[in-house]
Amino acid sequence: MSTRIDVNDLDIFYGAFHAVQGVNMVIEPKSVTAFIGPSGCGKSTFLRTLNRMHEVIPGGRVQGEVLIDGKNLYGPGVDPVNVRREVGMVFQRPNPFPTMSIKENVLAGVKLNSKRISSAAADDLVERSLRGANLWTEVKDRLDKPGSGLSGGQQQRLCIARAIAVQPEVILMDEPCSALDPISTLAIEDLINELKSDYTVVIVTHNMQQAARVSDRTGFFNLEATGKPGRLVEMDETSKIFNNPAQQATEDYISGRFG
Ligand SMILES: Nc1ncnc2c1ncn2[C@@H]1O[C@H](COP(=O)(O)OP(=O)(O)OP(=O)(O)O)[C@@H](O)[C@H]1O
């Protein structure tokens, strides 16, 4: 599993509002790509177009192409449900299903995809997914207890286990640490670093140090003024973006001279 994403001339709308304009980028397989930029520039909106979650919002639509290993997600006949299986997502606030046990939470996505699996295969998948999310040793003795009984950081790793369980190729993360304390944040950052050996990982973060710590490549989004569309200003190796960006707007943002 490892997947390259090519975005070609992507424009994103909420009804008549043009939220993001003209994005072209390549997201490399088996790497971590981070998106940074000021509030409202369209990072989360753009992220959601990578697994067709944007169109779930009323009025949400796109023009352009998102190719996953050469196949356009927005091509005719493509089933968004299959897209979301291939491209998993982890949200800002950990959102385990509160009435489900830890084990049921891990299997929730697999069951939604109406896959029938034997109980032995389910046990195996639960263990593999929880190990993959660095949570197994902490929860292996309480798999039947509610997922909501875990700490915030553990809940977020449970959500990552749930995403991994459906065996996606890409994992999108929208500010996955913003609701977490520093120790839990470090645990998630370590995990992101491990996930890239198996998955293509894309993360939106407000935290520039986090982008610098976890990502191989960084894209800087910006917007000229409120009401104008956001744009991808530049995208490059993370070290280049933080040490020697090509664009003045990037330099101003990363050095805190923004706005
Ligand atoms: N559901 C929605 N309906 C209409 N407009 C929206 C919706 N969600 C976001 N927008 C608008 O789209 C633009 C981009 O928002 P988005 O949340 O993607 O930015 P962001 O860069 O992720 O911001 P933040 O860093 O604050 O999360 C903003 O102008 C926002 O108000």
From TrEMBL:
GO MF annotation list: ATP binding; ATP hydrolysis activity; phosphate transmembrane transporter activity
A cellular component term, taken from the record's GO annotations: membrane
Keywords recorded for this protein, A-Z: ATP-binding, Nucleotide-binding, Translocase, Transport
Pfam families: ABC_tran
Protein's GO biological process: phosphate ion transmembrane transport
InterPro entries: AAA+_ATPase, ABC_transporter-like_ATP-bd, ABC_transporter-like_CS, P-loop_NTPase, PstB-like
Ranges for domain ABC transporter: 5-248
PANTHER family in UniProt: ABC TRANSPORTER I FAMILY MEMBER 17
Name assigned to this protein: Phosphate ABC transporter ATP-binding protein (PhoT family)
Organism: Ornithinicoccus hortensis
